[in-house]
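go over my protein:
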Amino acid sequence: MRFSPEYVRLVLNENFEDAKAQFLTPLMAIHYAHLVMLSEQGIVAREDAHAIRGALDAIPVDDVRKVQYDGTCEDLFFYLERLIVQRCGDEVAGRLHTARSRNDIDMTMYRMRQREMVLAIVDGVLSLRRVLLALASQHREHVFAAHTHTQPAQPTTIAHYLLAVLEQLERDTVRLRAAYSTTNRNPLGACAITGTGFPINRARTAELLGFDGTTGNTYGSIATVDYLLESVSAAAVMLAGLGRVVQDLLLWCTSEFGYLRLSDAFVQSSSIMPQKRNPVALEHARALGSKALGQASAIVVAVHNTPFGDIVDTEDDLQPLVTRMFTDAARAVSLVAAAMAQAEFDVATLEARAEQGWITVTELADTLAREHDVPFRAGHTIAARLIQSARANPERPLSVALREIGKDVAGRDLAYDEAALNEMLSPRHFVAVRQTHGGPAPAETLRAIGESEAALRADDRWIRDTRDRLDRASALLKKVSGEL
């Protein structure tokens, strides 16, 4: 077959290089697994299976990775097929392609690579969760001013903020695990789209390739791309959430905030201003995450409104984008984990800011409602007027102003001395009384940390067990193919 130079340069060469980099290893595993199944099912005679196995063993995989595309074959699959023919002859080599097609081979390769990439993102998410848990445990008592609408709002703790991020990452892990489960089904045996008349055993190739089971409908095994979009979407949700957190962290690294300091290992200086500590590691993480999120959108757009069947739009040209998206997503979350592992919060500055701007005054209205049965709206009015009074006459004792305003607004004698008012309006008191489930009180964040630690242990076991299953499948394939 002869291809035009333009087609070779613009399409086939690029796809050949991509396939060598991404799919050579899974393609070889598919060849071995399919051969074992054909032999066990009696579809290929044992002596032929032995000859084909020898031909596969003789393929110099490292050398194949260095081969330059010359246009004499269509793609990597046909290049390997030519090597097999050279080693055991066309008649015997041709039996390996019984009961399969490039369609189901491609879909199987894509899923094998995609599951690895999903696991890489999960690794990064688990690393970040581990780091944030350690930080939350250190900072259960350390208060700071939470922001709403970019303005100081109410006091909380560093641990409370980090636990909110952790819960988001835990949900991301649930989504990524579900996406892995959807992805890790074996389409091999669906053939061109209608299956085969040969008595194949799809469950056996699934076992040998580390899949959790087979796909169902053979048409859908080739035509559907939702397994890819589910993984892409789970990654995109993680990236969107992570980007919002990174934006906070970058603001906190500014000299104006001064809340967070990255270690020297994750900052860079200016070429002309040596005093600067630029938190570029987090900037790179934001850029990588944004790039990956854009790539995720491009993947969805690329497959949108394409025919429901075997179509090139979901195959060779799309796969490099898929790889890049997953790679950049994993880089982004892993980089945040690495940077935060050595970061330090300025707890003194954080607490000092939490004492400014009357951000605890809601507790005055709450206390009046609890202890004096003052309706919250009236308490809110009293609190607002107390702030106005303090700003207009800062020398006047708050206790005196409160008694006067209380009589005027609620008709009550709201008697508190200065010490009691100062305690009531302190950030630590504000946090301590908020023992709502999921709230910032140290006892409550301690409980939440325990739950997050348990969830992390469970997810650590899952990824460890998942990788162990893949390793066992690889060892089993090597063993049974070696016995042919």
User: Anything to note?
Assistant: The mean pLDDT is 94. The longest strand covers residues 151-157.
